[in-house]
Amino acid sequence: GAVKYHPAAIKTGVTPILGFDVFVAPGRRHDRGNGRAGARSWHMVLLAQNEKGYKNLCELVTAGYTEGMYYYPRIDRELLESRAEGLICTSACLRGEVNDALLKEDRAAAVEAATYYKELFPGRFYLEIQEHGLEEDRKVVPEVISLAKELDLPLIATNDTHYLNRGDHEFQEVLICVQTGKTLNDEKRMKIQSEEFYLKTADEMEALFSEVPEALSNSLAITEQCDFEFNFGGSHYPDFETPEGETKKSLLKKLAEEGLDKHLKQLSIAGKEAVRYRDRLAMELGVINSQNYEGYFLIVSDFIRYARSEGIPVGPGRGSAAGSVAAYALGITGIDPIRYSLLFERFLNTERISPARHRH
Questions:
Q1: Where is 44: in which H helix or E strand?
Q2: What's the pTM?
Q3: How many angstroms separate the Cα of 104 from the Cα of each of 1, 108, 126, 156, 265?
């Protein structure tokens, strides 16, 4: 969604801010259970300030799904400590760690959490206050304002937005019933005890938080800190890590020559005919290296080799890639281009620089 949202926001004159409402495990993300006694996963809002922050955000979200999944995709403090750069953090809603502690009247835990995140995100951690007409909000907001003064932390006034207009509350109730398999007549169904979860106007927010105007102006302060743009131009490949003492070029040459030797042995090709294959491979490697595409070949070869080792079906290669002895030697394709007089130049040459269009 971020990729579609970012240019659309810019086109309409809105400053795009990419962020995520993450779940933070009370203990370690690997734990399956409550972690700390009686605790549950807390909400936290992370916003990307810049490219580094966006990359860190992507890695945190990915780790939440691949390492911390337990009902929800969860991260933990350990992950946050390694990926805090370039991110703005806010304490989120009533289910945030600070607010949760204040609701339980555990001020010491709230102070510990707020202090920890203040140090982890220096100048980039905000305490959120919200007002949805809930009793819990009335209880927590004064405590959060007091805590902000005590710890010298900035406030940010927000509003949970589940739908666009105030009158959409009824529709959300219906959707929740559909999602949970209940009817509106069921007294035990999940209910949202407020009609305030809509996109409020600036005037409405000012009316709610007139006593703490800095909590409203900090919205602009956060906006001014965020400066990230997607680079949609050019090709972006993962960086292939090579063993110590090897460069991408040397590793590609080594793997290609080893692969070609295996093919020649299996086909009983030797003498002048073998030299023909080796000369063709040397020529192709020269072109590949001159265009700095060695990483591209190593990456494709790596995932195809893995797929085959795991019994995952993978095609023998199609399109102009079948004309490459290097691709054949690396196991990317399964067709001998010399035998069938296929041209490498149709796949890659110094005048046709477009690997993204190649099909394998």
A1: strand 42-48
A2: 0.75
A3: 36, 11, 21, 22, 73
Do residues 226 and 48 lie in contact, with contact meaning Cβ atoms separated by under 8 Å? yes
Closest CA to 222 of 339, 143, 135, 124: 124
- For 100-116, how does the pLDDT look when each residue is reduced to its tens digit (9 = 90+)? 999 999 999 999 999 99
- Coil vs helix vs strand at 48: strand
Task: Give the model confidence (pLDDT) of 182-213 as tens digits.
Answer: 999 998 999 888 999 999 999 999 999 999 99
In this prediction, residue 346 carries a pLDDT of 84
At 128, the amino acid letter reads E
Kindly tell me the sign of the dihedral angle through the C-alpha atoms of 333, 336, 340, 343: positive
**DSSP string of 237-284?**
-PPPPPPTT--HHHHHHHHHHHHHHHHHHHTT--HHHHHHHHHHHHHH
Q: Which two tokens stand for residue 297?
A: 């070949």
For the chain, what is the mean pLDDT? 91
- Tokens coding 256: 């290609």
Residue 95 · residue 137 · CB < 8 Å:
no
> Residue 75 class from Cβ within 10 Å (0-12 exposed, 13-18 middle, 19+ buried)?
buried
- What are the two backbone dihedrals, phi and then psi, of residue 168, each rounded to the nearest 5 degrees? -85, 0
Question: For residue 303, which amino acid is it?
Answer: F
* 3-state SS, residue 21: strand
Tokens of 141: 């907001």
Which residues lie below 8 Å from residue 290, measured CB to CB, with a gap of 6+? Answer: 350
How many CA atoms are closer than 13 Å to the CA of 226, on its beta-carbon side? Answer: 22
Would you state the structure tokens that stand for residue 203, as one six-digit string? 């005037």
Residues 6+ apart with CB under 8 A from 291: 348, 350, 353
Neighbouring CB atoms inside 10 A of 306's CB total 11
Residue 80 and residue 62: Cα distance in Å, rounded?
13
d(CA 240, CA 220): 40
Phi, psi (rounded to 5 degrees) for 123: 75, 5
Kindly indicate the confidence band of residue 320, based on its pLDDT and cuts at 50, 70 and 90.
Answer: confident
Report residue 248 as tokens: 């991408």
* H or E stretch covering 180: helix 169-180
Torsion angle defined by CA atoms of residues 57, 63, 66 and 68, in that order, rounded to the nearest 10 degrees = -120
